[in-house]
Amino acid sequence: MLGAKNIVVKLINAQTARPFIMKHHYSGKIVQNSKLHFGCFLNGVLGGVMSFGSPMDKSKTLPLFNGDIAWNGVMELNRMAFSDILPKNSESRCIAYALRFIKQHYPFVKAIISFADGAQCGDGTIYRATGFSLTQIKRNRQIIELPNGERVARITINVRDGTKTKDFMDRTGGKFIDGYMLRYVKILDPSITLNCDVLPYSTIDDMNAGMYLGEKRMRVKHSDDATTFHVVEGGLKPTDAHQFEMKGAVA
Could you write out the DSSP letters of every residue in 73-114? Predict the structure, then answer.
Protein backbone atom coordinates (compact mmCIF):
# COMPACT_ATOMS: atom_id res chain seq x y z
CA MET A 1 0.00 0.00 0.00
CA LEU A 2 1.30 3.43 -0.92
CA GLY A 3 1.92 5.75 2.02
CA ALA A 4 2.90 9.37 2.60
CA LYS A 5 6.54 8.56 1.90
CA ASN A 6 5.56 7.74 -1.70
CA ILE A 7 4.27 11.26 -2.40
CA VAL A 8 6.17 13.29 -4.99
CA VAL A 9 5.99 17.08 -4.52
CA LYS A 10 6.95 19.39 -7.36
CA LEU A 11 6.25 22.88 -8.60
CA ILE A 12 3.25 23.22 -10.90
CA ASN A 13 1.78 26.15 -12.78
CA ALA A 14 -1.36 28.09 -12.01
CA GLN A 15 -3.29 26.47 -14.85
CA THR A 16 -2.87 23.10 -13.11
CA ALA A 17 -3.29 24.33 -9.54
CA ARG A 18 -6.41 26.47 -9.84
CA PRO A 19 -8.94 23.90 -11.14
CA PHE A 20 -7.81 21.47 -8.45
CA ILE A 21 -8.23 24.08 -5.71
CA MET A 22 -11.68 25.06 -6.94
CA LYS A 23 -12.74 21.41 -6.82
CA HIS A 24 -11.18 20.34 -3.53
CA HIS A 25 -10.83 23.42 -1.30
CA TYR A 26 -13.81 23.89 1.01
CA SER A 27 -14.26 27.50 -0.22
CA GLY A 28 -14.32 26.47 -3.87
CA LYS A 29 -12.31 29.59 -4.66
CA ILE A 30 -8.75 30.50 -5.61
CA VAL A 31 -6.63 33.41 -4.38
CA GLN A 32 -5.70 35.56 -7.36
CA ASN A 33 -2.30 36.66 -6.07
CA SER A 34 -0.98 33.14 -5.50
CA LYS A 35 2.38 32.88 -7.26
CA LEU A 36 4.03 29.68 -6.09
CA HIS A 37 2.18 26.38 -6.43
CA PHE A 38 3.24 22.93 -5.24
CA GLY A 39 1.55 19.81 -6.54
CA CYS A 40 1.50 16.64 -4.45
CA PHE A 41 1.39 13.47 -6.55
CA LEU A 42 0.76 9.88 -5.56
CA ASN A 43 1.53 7.27 -8.22
CA GLY A 44 1.53 10.06 -10.79
CA VAL A 45 -1.90 11.40 -9.84
CA LEU A 46 -2.31 14.94 -8.48
CA GLY A 47 -3.77 14.64 -4.99
CA GLY A 48 -2.95 17.94 -3.33
CA VAL A 49 -2.03 21.55 -4.02
CA MET A 50 -0.39 24.20 -1.83
CA SER A 51 -0.40 27.79 -3.10
CA PHE A 52 1.65 30.67 -1.71
CA GLY A 53 1.42 34.37 -2.44
CA SER A 54 1.83 37.82 -0.93
CA PRO A 55 -0.12 38.52 2.28
CA MET A 56 -3.36 40.40 1.68
CA ASP A 57 -2.78 43.20 4.19
CA LYS A 58 0.66 44.86 4.21
CA SER A 59 -0.15 47.21 7.08
CA LYS A 60 -0.91 44.34 9.47
CA THR A 61 1.77 41.89 8.37
CA LEU A 62 5.19 43.55 8.59
CA PRO A 63 4.63 44.90 12.15
CA LEU A 64 4.42 41.27 13.30
CA PHE A 65 8.19 40.91 12.89
CA ASN A 66 11.40 42.30 14.35
CA GLY A 67 14.50 42.43 12.19
CA ASP A 68 15.50 43.27 8.64
CA ILE A 69 12.54 42.06 6.64
CA ALA A 70 11.20 43.51 3.39
CA TRP A 71 7.63 43.25 2.15
CA ASN A 72 8.54 40.39 -0.17
CA GLY A 73 10.15 38.66 2.81
CA VAL A 74 6.77 37.30 3.93
CA MET A 75 4.66 34.81 2.00
CA GLU A 76 1.21 33.55 2.85
CA LEU A 77 0.12 29.96 2.44
CA ASN A 78 -3.26 31.01 1.15
CA ARG A 79 -4.63 27.75 -0.21
CA MET A 80 -4.00 24.14 0.81
CA ALA A 81 -6.29 21.57 -0.79
CA PHE A 82 -5.87 17.79 -0.52
CA SER A 83 -8.06 15.05 -1.93
CA ASP A 84 -8.91 11.70 -0.38
CA ILE A 85 -6.44 9.82 -2.58
CA LEU A 86 -3.55 10.96 -0.39
CA PRO A 87 -2.82 8.86 2.71
CA LYS A 88 -2.69 9.90 6.35
CA ASN A 89 0.00 12.43 7.33
CA SER A 90 0.33 13.70 3.76
CA GLU A 91 -0.24 17.31 4.76
CA SER A 92 2.57 17.45 7.30
CA ARG A 93 5.08 15.85 4.93
CA CYS A 94 4.12 18.09 2.01
CA ILE A 95 4.11 21.36 3.89
CA ALA A 96 7.45 20.51 5.52
CA TYR A 97 8.91 20.01 2.05
CA ALA A 98 7.43 23.28 0.75
CA LEU A 99 8.98 25.19 3.65
CA ARG A 100 12.39 23.63 3.01
CA PHE A 101 12.14 24.39 -0.70
CA ILE A 102 11.21 28.04 -0.12
CA LYS A 103 14.00 28.47 2.42
CA GLN A 104 16.55 27.01 0.00
CA HIS A 105 15.46 28.63 -3.26
CA TYR A 106 13.94 31.90 -2.06
CA PRO A 107 16.27 33.01 0.76
CA PHE A 108 14.74 36.50 0.83
CA VAL A 109 11.56 34.94 2.25
CA LYS A 110 12.01 35.17 6.00
CA ALA A 111 8.62 34.00 7.25
CA ILE A 112 5.41 32.23 6.24
CA ILE A 113 2.01 33.30 7.51
CA SER A 114 -1.24 31.37 7.22
CA PHE A 115 -4.75 31.42 8.62
CA ALA A 116 -6.87 28.52 9.80
CA ASP A 117 -10.58 29.03 9.26
CA GLY A 118 -12.01 27.61 12.45
CA ALA A 119 -15.42 28.91 11.46
CA GLN A 120 -15.74 26.63 8.42
CA CYS A 121 -12.95 24.07 8.34
CA GLY A 122 -10.40 23.42 11.09
CA ASP A 123 -8.28 25.01 13.78
CA GLY A 124 -4.88 24.39 12.18
CA THR A 125 -3.67 20.97 13.33
CA ILE A 126 -1.30 20.82 10.36
CA TYR A 127 0.37 24.10 11.30
CA ARG A 128 0.97 22.98 14.85
CA ALA A 129 2.38 19.70 13.57
CA THR A 130 4.93 21.53 11.43
CA GLY A 131 6.07 23.96 14.09
CA PHE A 132 4.12 27.12 13.28
CA SER A 133 3.56 29.58 16.12
CA LEU A 134 -0.02 30.39 17.04
CA THR A 135 -0.16 34.19 17.22
CA GLN A 136 -3.84 35.13 17.21
CA ILE A 137 -7.33 33.75 17.74
CA LYS A 138 -10.13 36.08 16.71
CA ARG A 139 -13.87 35.55 16.51
CA ASN A 140 -14.94 35.35 12.88
CA ARG A 141 -15.78 38.70 11.36
CA GLN A 142 -14.79 37.77 7.83
CA ILE A 143 -17.31 35.18 6.61
CA ILE A 144 -21.00 36.10 6.27
CA GLU A 145 -23.81 33.62 5.77
CA LEU A 146 -26.90 34.72 3.88
CA PRO A 147 -30.43 33.47 4.67
CA ASN A 148 -30.24 31.11 1.67
CA GLY A 149 -27.10 29.46 3.10
CA GLU A 150 -24.65 31.12 0.71
CA ARG A 151 -21.43 32.30 2.34
CA VAL A 152 -19.47 35.33 1.21
CA ALA A 153 -16.17 36.84 2.33
CA ARG A 154 -16.26 40.29 3.86
CA ILE A 155 -13.28 41.41 1.77
CA THR A 156 -15.25 40.60 -1.38
CA ILE A 157 -18.04 42.92 -0.29
CA ASN A 158 -15.75 45.76 0.79
CA VAL A 159 -13.17 45.65 -1.97
CA ARG A 160 -14.92 44.38 -5.07
CA ASP A 161 -18.42 45.76 -4.49
CA GLY A 162 -17.45 48.89 -2.55
CA THR A 163 -20.21 48.17 -0.03
CA LYS A 164 -19.89 48.60 3.71
CA THR A 165 -20.29 45.34 5.61
CA LYS A 166 -23.04 46.62 7.90
CA ASP A 167 -25.08 47.98 4.99
CA PHE A 168 -24.72 44.66 3.17
CA MET A 169 -25.78 42.64 6.20
CA ASP A 170 -28.74 44.92 6.93
CA ARG A 171 -29.89 44.67 3.33
CA THR A 172 -29.50 40.92 2.95
CA GLY A 173 -30.12 39.66 6.47
CA GLY A 174 -26.68 38.08 6.50
CA LYS A 175 -24.88 37.19 9.73
CA PHE A 176 -21.31 36.36 10.64
CA ILE A 177 -20.99 32.59 11.02
CA ASP A 178 -19.99 31.31 14.43
CA GLY A 179 -16.38 30.39 14.95
CA TYR A 180 -12.83 31.73 15.10
CA MET A 181 -10.00 32.60 12.73
CA LEU A 182 -6.53 31.52 13.86
CA ARG A 183 -3.27 33.07 12.65
CA TYR A 184 -0.11 30.97 12.44
CA VAL A 185 3.44 32.10 11.61
CA LYS A 186 6.55 30.11 10.71
CA ILE A 187 9.93 31.85 10.95
CA LEU A 188 12.40 30.64 8.30
CA ASP A 189 15.28 33.00 9.11
CA PRO A 190 16.49 32.92 12.75
CA SER A 191 17.57 36.57 12.49
CA ILE A 192 13.87 37.46 12.43
CA THR A 193 11.77 37.33 15.59
CA LEU A 194 8.09 37.79 16.28
CA ASN A 195 6.86 41.16 17.48
CA CYS A 196 3.59 39.74 18.77
CA ASP A 197 2.33 37.34 21.40
CA VAL A 198 2.80 33.61 20.87
CA LEU A 199 -0.15 31.73 22.30
CA PRO A 200 0.07 28.24 23.79
CA TYR A 201 -1.87 25.76 21.68
CA SER A 202 -4.07 25.03 24.69
CA THR A 203 -5.61 28.49 24.19
CA ILE A 204 -7.67 26.98 21.38
CA ASP A 205 -9.57 24.77 23.80
CA ASP A 206 -9.61 27.45 26.48
CA MET A 207 -11.56 29.64 24.04
CA ASN A 208 -13.67 26.72 22.77
CA ALA A 209 -12.26 27.47 19.31
CA GLY A 210 -11.47 23.88 18.30
CA MET A 211 -12.84 22.77 14.94
CA TYR A 212 -12.24 19.81 12.66
CA LEU A 213 -13.77 19.49 9.18
CA GLY A 214 -16.29 22.17 10.02
CA GLU A 215 -17.48 20.59 13.27
CA LYS A 216 -16.70 21.45 16.86
CA ARG A 217 -13.84 19.32 18.12
CA MET A 218 -13.87 17.57 21.48
CA ARG A 219 -11.67 19.08 24.14
CA VAL A 220 -8.43 17.16 24.49
CA LYS A 221 -5.46 17.26 26.79
CA HIS A 222 -3.05 19.60 25.07
CA SER A 223 0.67 20.00 25.04
CA ASP A 224 2.41 23.07 23.72
CA ASP A 225 4.76 20.73 21.91
CA ALA A 226 3.61 20.62 18.28
CA THR A 227 4.39 16.94 17.83
CA THR A 228 2.59 15.77 20.95
CA PHE A 229 -0.46 17.82 20.03
CA HIS A 230 -0.56 16.25 16.59
CA VAL A 231 -0.34 12.76 18.05
CA VAL A 232 -3.37 13.54 20.22
CA GLU A 233 -5.19 14.62 17.06
CA GLY A 234 -4.32 11.31 15.43
CA GLY A 235 -1.30 12.16 13.33
CA LEU A 236 2.35 11.30 13.58
CA LYS A 237 5.54 13.23 13.97
CA PRO A 238 6.36 14.68 10.54
CA THR A 239 9.47 13.20 8.97
CA ASP A 240 11.56 14.11 5.99
CA ALA A 241 10.18 12.89 2.69
CA HIS A 242 12.47 10.85 0.49
CA GLN A 243 10.85 11.01 -2.94
CA PHE A 244 10.34 14.72 -3.49
CA GLU A 245 11.28 16.35 -6.75
CA MET A 246 12.18 19.98 -7.40
CA LYS A 247 11.08 20.61 -10.92
CA GLY A 248 8.20 22.26 -12.70
CA ALA A 249 7.12 25.80 -13.37
CA VAL A 250 6.29 28.74 -11.18
CA ALA A 251 3.18 30.61 -12.22
Answer: GEEEEEEEEE-TTS-TTHHHHHHHHHHHHHHHH-TT--EEEE
pTM for this entry: 0.77
| Residue 31: φ, ψ to 5° | -110, 120
Which CA distances in Å does 110 have to 30, 95, 173, 192, 243? 24, 16, 42, 7, 26
> Where along the chain do its domains lie?
4-140+178-233
pLDDT in tens, 84-98: 999 988 999 999 999
Q: What is the DSSP letter of 157?
A: I
> What does the alpha-carbon distance between residue 81 and residue 169 come to, in Å, rounded to a whole number?
30
For residue 92, the one-letter residue type is: S
Q: Looking at the DSSP assignment, which residues form a beta bridge with residue 178?
A: none
Where b means 16+ CB within 10 Å and e means fewer, 201-240 reads bbbbbeeebbbeeeeebeeeebbeebbebbeebebeebee
4-140+178-233 adopts what CATH topology? Aminopeptidase (3.40.630)
CA distance 153 to 186: 25
> ∠ at Cα 36 (126, 128), nearest 5°?
15
